[in-house]
Amino acid sequence: MLLCFIIKRSFDKINKNMGFDVKNTTFFSLLDMVFPYTCRGCGRLGSVLCGRCKKHNIQASVGICPRCRKIIKRCSCIVPAYGFCYREGVVDDLLKEYKYKSVRGAAEVLAECLDAAIPDSVLEAEIVPLPTAPKHIRARGFDHTLYLVKALSRRREGFSVCRALRRASNDVQVGKDDKTREEQAARAYKASSACRIDPEKLYILIDDVWTTGSSMEAAIKVMQKAGAVKLASAVLLMPR
Ligand SMILES: [Zn+2]
Ligand SMILES: [Zn+2]
């Protein structure tokens, strides 16, 4: 066990130095299967985030609406946005590992964070993943948002996955300026026939990061056009 721990820690270090090289994801996924996880908060062996660090992060989450920047209780946005925390610290590290190194064991913890961000008063909802660009799915070997949304649906009885959106373009938002992001987002999504929209139901659109909000706003417009009336959104991270 101790040997596993030492080897895993050394690989984690090499891994970090490599700057999350996507080409190595299969290799690291295999490593994750063979060696147990270490807590990204305190280094304890067992899971990607131990109970204590998880509790601390969930308690310290900001719970604000990234659109109006008010705490959730005070948010009066027509489509509220539930944000877990700022884009920094352990949850940010964990999300990067999850996305770029395919550390799938992080999905459960990240889903727990999303769960904590969505008010308990929301008993039933169709949770809709913002579709990832096919280019990213190919590079990462999995659709990280869909995987996260599925993990969230397992946590709340009244939540079911609804893939109401599909990708209409393969544009990538990372590294683009605000204006380009907005233009790209406007043509990024289309309604999908995979899930019929019911105006009576609540749809919560889920994404990992809120940067300028352009992706989320574009997705909301598509959902409204498709007939959705009750809408909300939830993200893990937002800029400070
Ligand atoms: Zn810990
Ligand atoms: Zn708001």
Which percent bin holds the helix content?
40-55%
Main sheet characteristics: 5 strands, parallel
Can you tell me the number of structural domains?
1
CA-CA gap between termini: 40 Å
Unreliably modeled segments: 14-24
User: What is the CATH T-level topology?
Assistant: Rossmann fold
Reconstruct the topology from this structure.
Layout: H1 2-17, H2 25-34, E1 37-38, E2 45-46, H3 51-60, E3 81-86, H4 89-100, H5 106-117, E4 125-129, H6 134-140, H7 144-155, E5 159-161, E6 165-167, H8 178-186, E7 189-191, E8 202-209, H9 214-225, E9 230-238
Helix pairs in contact: 5-7, 8-9
Can you walk through the features of this model?
With 240 residues, the chain is α/β, with parallel strands linked by helices. It has a single domain (62-238), classed as Rossmann fold (3-Layer(aba) Sandwich), CATH 3.40.50. The chain is 42% helix and 17% strand. The protein has helices spanning 2-17, 25-34, 51-60, 89-100, 106-117, 134-140, 144-155, 178-186, 214-225, and strands at 37-38, 45-46, 81-86, 125-129, 159-161, 165-167, 189-191, 202-209, 230-238. The strands form 3 sheets. A 5-stranded parallel beta sheet has the order 3-9-8-4-5, sandwiched between helices. Strand 8, helix 9 and strand 9 form a beta-alpha-beta unit. It binds zinc ion (2 copies).
